[in-house]
Amino acid sequence: MSDPDSVADGQYHSLDPRVIPLQKIGGSIFIGVLGTGSFIPLVFKLLGKDEPLFEGIVLLVLWLIAVLLGLWLAQAWPPKAYRFTSYKVDDQGMEIRRGVYFRVVINVPRSRVQHIDVSQGPIERRYGLGTLVIYTAGTEHAKVELEGLAHGRAMLVREHLLPSGVSDAV
Fold first, then answer.
1. In a domain, 66, yes or no
2. In terms of CB atoms within 10 Å, which end of the chain has fewer, N or C?
3. How far is the CA of 84 from the CAs of 96, 118, 121, 127, 140, in angstroms?
4. In terms of domains, do 10 and 29 share one?
């Protein structure tokens, strides 16, 4: 592995571009589950009552429009979110910027870091990505997540941000 300090260049970096298809797949799965879960009660509602045929058709069309809109959003949103998400790591800690409409800047000072996890779900593992999860001392933003880092890069950032040479004893 490279020198952990090489990630602390103080420059803003974009996420790994492989996060876009990853988020598209995740969004499509979510809409598929939500669409199926809402379709089954809709069918039971339509079969179980003596509603006019027109009313049933309207409900089915509204359901279809909602599912198609959700699928479109699941495909269109990840590239937008990718463009507006960046992070930088320096000797002081880490800064994360994100938000398409409502911008958020999160600063995580190294002195506040309690521990750090790098996690990978099955789809993230397929794309070679990981999620950096930083736990801090504090109440607001006590858990800061950054999804979409290359797994090796996430491990380097983790190594850099962890306190070095400090005893963990209480």
1. yes
2. C
3. 10, 22, 23, 21, 22
4. no
